[in-house]
Structures are given as C-alpha cells and as structure tokens.
Amino acid sequence: MSTGVGVSSCCLSGKVKEGKPAGTVKTIGGLETYVAEPEDGSTRKSIVLLVDIFGWTFPNVRLLADSYAASGFTAYIPDVHEGDSLPIEFLQDVEPPLPTRESMTVLQKTASTAKVGTTLGPWLISHREAVSKPIIDGFIRQVRLIPGTDKVGVVGFCWGGRYAILAAGEKDPGLAVDAAVACHPSLVAIPADFEGVRAPLSLALGDKDSLLGEKEVGQIRELMEKKKRGEQGEKVESEVRIYEDQVHGFALRGDWSSEKDKKAMDDAEKQGIEWFKKYLG
C-alpha cells in the first residue's frame, strides 16, 4: 500500500532572499518562463526548475536558476501554476522558523493548521496531478525540442519535488529526463512514486521535516538502495542526503541569517549542481 505524505504549514513558511535575478522572461510551450542562460548561451545541458506553491516569480527560485546558469546550465522556471501560485506574503505570517515553531502552544499550532487547511485545500484541488502533470510534461517535451538541447535535468521543491520524482520515472523519450533532484518533496506516495524511477535521482531532505519523518525517509532509502543494486531490474543511481535541524522548504526558503541554515541551503544547491554535472555532462 502506498503511503501518501501530504502538506502542512511548513509548506508556507520560510524567508525571501535578497538579490536581483539576472535572467529574462520568455514564453515557451505556452507558459511564461524565467530563463537563466550560461555565459556561452549553450542549451546543451538544460535544467527545468519545478516550483513550490509560491511559483515562478518567487525571488529565491529565480536566484537559484541564476546559480545553475553560472555553473554552465540553461535553467528554465515555467509558470506551471498558470498565474495561480500562492502569494509570497504567506511566508511571513503562517509558520515561523524552527526555534519559534518548537515553542508554540497547542492553540497556536491548531490555528496554524486551520489556516493551512483553508489556504492549501482549495489550491491543491485546482492543481491536482491530473491538471498539473500534463502541463509539466508538455513543458519538458518543449524544452527537448529547443535547438541545441542534448541533456535535460529537472529539480523540484516541495510541491514540485514530487513532479521531479515522477519525471525521473517517465518512459516516453520525449518526456523523460536524464537526471533529477528533489528537495523536500511533498504529497509523495511511498512506495508508488519511487518504484518507477529510472533516471539518476538525488534527494535533499531535512531531519525536522514534518512531512517526511524518520519512518518515511527509511522507506525511501530502502527503495532507492534496491534500485541501486538492480533488484527491480536496471540499476538506477541515487543519493539521499539528510540535513540536520532543517525543516520542510529549507533548500529554497531557509533563514540565511542563521549560519547553519545558510550552510544547508548552500550545500543543497551544491548537491544539485554536482549531481547534474555528473549525469548531464
């Protein structure tokens, strides 16, 4: 039986990073898309960033795309929510950083959970898999058709993390990716979403993630180890990295004023870049 791992107020917490994105906005496959290009303009190695619930205009994800471009990749952030991402203001007023969260009263936590239900529930229905996966599939197919494109990777965060895992399991050559990275994915079904993985998959998870506890992480580790050994057919490379004292969303929305949190964000960024250098090179 598959275990469905949902969403919580952690999905709505975090910080907005300072900095000015340097990319451009284009329309690709009918979707508005942020594009960050490497210095040589090559599309040979391309990365599709699948966003969390805050969408493609969120400064943090655009600055991350710029970092991928600086490392030699063309990075695309499509508006897969088609103009219906949740407002960034929720970052400031739903769930506080970990130290504050741990000191919250039961009443405060109950109020937070209630707000999550009224905010996320309707949004998740509107952006369920039957709606969102065809949009994401169509964009990946379009990227593969861009002149000069050879290898395509996908990296997803929270809501988008699950779709990165699903992309790693695609059999259709027009939709398949050459490598995938998923940072603190939400809404994953265990084992179902991982059993079909065919492309190299790297996972960045926080040990204080309220959506993926020790039990779920253990199940994922076991599944991916079996794939590495080829127990379910062809061998599939993978890695599962756990970040100490990091909550859901840390790789994209951590508190950079905290030395430990900033290091975790930086290390997760390096994890993704090194994975793609290895498997898209």
TrEMBL record:
Transmembrane segments: none annotated. Residues 31-280 form the Dienelactone hydrolase domain. Keywords: Hydrolase. InterPro entries: AB_hydrolase_fold, Dienelactn_hydro. Gene3D superfamilies: alpha/beta hydrolase. One of its GO terms (molecular function) is hydrolase activity. This is Alpha/beta-hydrolase.
